[in-house]
């Protein structure tokens, strides 16, 4: 029985910041951002969007009423969750009107959370072939204004429907993974901003890739020549390229050119959204599938997931016949084309405009936000969510 990705959706806020203009304002050469780390635009989340609404909006575009009744498991991967007790997935479950007889949980391991969700979903469907599982990866990356990590911020979500006999990608059996207790990136519960040891994190990302890749080759008997493309978790788009460069000497120049060309295509969406943590790998995969129109069914796609702290995994999928018919290309093209640019000053104001953490009530103007699902405020220490389509 094939198990894999049946549908995939993506959502980002309607605001963005041009990285060239941020560089000028920060007295940095623009090429350091656009070439050095490979970022062009950063999605900026207004106060009316949080990880819950981003995820719900991403799922809204792909789920039919039939899907909502068949889903019996919702898995929300995030590292910027809004509550230390209640799962962010429960809010999404309600906002979308999913079958009440479903499990709903939140999974946390830095940027690896959505991958953990997919692997959990595979096991669930193997035991329950008629089930469908909604896996969400949603985050708002915050490092702080004028910090070293500012240029690698972003906001967005990816939603995936995992099922038997998937229409987009069947996930293969072999998967290799590893864990090591390191402090390359972390966010204590008392902080709304992350801490990172950038150089160490880069080194560990590459080291984990090398180790799980070698283990994968040994376990599967496959090599670089068997892949049409390899997509990576992208805290910034230059990061995956650094990891792939470590295996260029394994095969022919033709293999190198193919993987390199397809990797570049896979970074397009990420270059224009920024870091979305748990959803970054799957945004990269989506960029490849939607923008490379001649990508053939039957192609094997490698997927490298990394979550600081740290857990890494390499696994693969095979594209199904007519997979392009199940993609939301037009919707995502419209999403990017209708976004509004903000100035650096406006971005800084939005960044500092946060929900109260002292129990105060707040009512927000959601009419300025074109998204269907928004945060409408806080009352009695509870976030108030609105689905405008209801």
Automatic annotation (TrEMBL):
This is Hydroxymethylglutaryl-CoA synthase. The keyword Metal-binding does not apply. InterPro entries: HMG_CoA_synt_C_dom, HMG_CoA_synth_N, HMG_CoA_synthase_prok, Thiolase-like. It holds the Pfam family HMG_CoA_synt_C. (3S)-3-hydroxy-3-methylglutaryl-CoA binds at residues 143, 242, 275. Residues 2-165 form the Hydroxymethylglutaryl-coenzyme A synthase N-terminal domain. Keywords: Transferase. GO terms for biological process: acetyl-CoA metabolic process. Residues 175-246, 256-352 form the Hydroxymethylglutaryl-coenzyme A synthase C-terminal domain.
């Amino acid at each position: 029985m094939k198990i894999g990705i049946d549908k995939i959706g993506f959502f980002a806020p309607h605001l963005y910041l041009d990285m060239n203009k941020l560089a000028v304002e920060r007295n940095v050469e623009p090429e350091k951002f656009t070439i050095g780390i490979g970022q062009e635009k950063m999605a900026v989340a207004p106060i009316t969007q949080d990880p819950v609404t981003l995820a719900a909006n991403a799922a809204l575009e792909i789920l039919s009423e039939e899907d909502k009744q068949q889903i019996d498991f919702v898995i929300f991967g995030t590292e910027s969750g809004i509550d230390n007790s209640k799962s962010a997935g429960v809010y999404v479950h309600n906002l979308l009107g999913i079958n009440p007889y479903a499990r709903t949980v939140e999974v946390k391991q830095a940027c690896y959370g959505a991958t953990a969700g997919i692997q959990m979903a595979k096991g669930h469907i193997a035991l329950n072939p008629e089930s469908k599982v909604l896996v969400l990866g949603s985050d708002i990356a915050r490092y702080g204004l004028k910090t070293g990590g500012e240029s690698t911020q972003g906001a967005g979500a990816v939603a995936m429907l995992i099922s038997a006999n998937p229409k987009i990608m069947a996930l293969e059996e072999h998967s290799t993974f590893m864990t090591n207790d390191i402090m390359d990136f972390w966010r204590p519960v008392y902080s709304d901003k992350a801490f990172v040891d950038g150089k160490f994190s880069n080194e560990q990302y590459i080291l984990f890739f090398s180790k799980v890749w070698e283990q994968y080759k040994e376990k599967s008997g496959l090599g670089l020549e068997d892949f049409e493309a390899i997509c990576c978790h992208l805290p910034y788009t230059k990061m995956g390229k650094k990891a792939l460069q470590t295996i260029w000497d394994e095969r022919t120049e033709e293999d190198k050119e193919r993987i390199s060309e397809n990797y570049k295509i896979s970074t397009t969406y990420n270059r224009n959204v920024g870091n979305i943590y748990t959803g970054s790998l799957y945004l990269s995969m989506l960029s490849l599938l939607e923008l490379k129109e001649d990508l053939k069914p039957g192609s094997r796609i490698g997927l490298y997931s990394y979550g600081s702290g740290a857990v890494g995994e390499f696994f693969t999928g095979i594209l199904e016949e007519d997979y392009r018919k199940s993609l939301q290309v037009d919707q995502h093209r419209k999403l990017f084309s209708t976004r509004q640019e903000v100035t650096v000053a406006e971005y800084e104001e939005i960044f500092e405009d946060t929900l109260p953490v002292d129990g105060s009530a707040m009512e927000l103007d959601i009419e300025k936000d074109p998204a269907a699902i928004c945060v409408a405020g806080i009352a009695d220490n509870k976030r108030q969510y609105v689905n405008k389509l209801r």
